[in-house]
Structure formats: C-alpha cells, structure tokens
Amino acid sequence: MKDPKHPYTQALISSLPRLGDESPRKGLWGTPPDLKNPPPGCEFHPRCPYAMDICRREEPMFTKYENEWKVRCWLYLKR
C-alpha cells in the first residue's frame, strides 16, 4: 500500500486521516456503481480522473507493473 497504482486505491489511501494532519481529506467523488447493473468496461471509470475511452468499453486484465505489482488498469497495460 506504499505506492498504489490503481486510481481507486490511490483515492482510498488519500482519504485516510494522518496523525497531526488537520487538512481536509480527499475522497471519491460521484456515486458508486450499481452492483446489480455495473457499467461496461472498468467499473471505476465513471469516477476515475484518468478514464479513457477504452476504460468505458473494455474491462482491463491484471498485468504486472515494473515486475513488482499486479494492477488491473488500462493506464498500465501496454498496448
């Protein structure tokens, strides 16, 4: 969790309070997807600041990133 790659994980980590930090927390904007009827493609794309056209069409597969992490995000998939 030291250096998350997926935008959803980054947003979750940035919403956590830190000791001694009085600044407002960042959070996820927008409405979570309907789990009974999820959007096509990546389920996070409606709330992702990096969403691309492919995110709206196709669900990404897990891929290794820098031989250290696995991430399921079109930002890190080589095309």
From TrEMBL:
InterPro entries: Oligopep_ABC_C, P-loop_NTPase. GO terms for molecular function: ATP binding. Keywords: ATP-binding, Nucleotide-binding, Transport. This is Oligopeptide/dipeptide ABC transporter C-terminal domain-containing protein. The lineage of its organism: Archaea, Thermoproteota, Thermoprotei, Desulfurococcales, Desulfurococcaceae. Residues 1-34 are annotated as: Disordered. Residues 2-55 form the Oligopeptide/dipeptide ABC transporter C-terminal domain. Gene3D superfamilies: P-loop containing nucleotide triphosphate hydrolases. It holds the Pfam family oligo_HPY. One of its GO terms (biological process) is peptide transport. NCBIfam families: oligo_HPY (TIGR01727). SUPFAM superfamilies: P-loop containing nucleoside triphosphate hydrolases. The keyword Ion transport does not apply. It comes from the Archaea.
